Amino acid sequence: MLNKARLASIASALVLVFDAFSGFGGMLGVIIPLYITLGSFGLVGPNTQAAAMNVVPGRSGSISSIVGGATFGIGAAISATAGFLHDGTARPLAALILIMIVASSAALYGLAKPSRVHAPVR
Question: CB–CB of 108/20 below 8 Å?
Answer without folding.
Answer: no
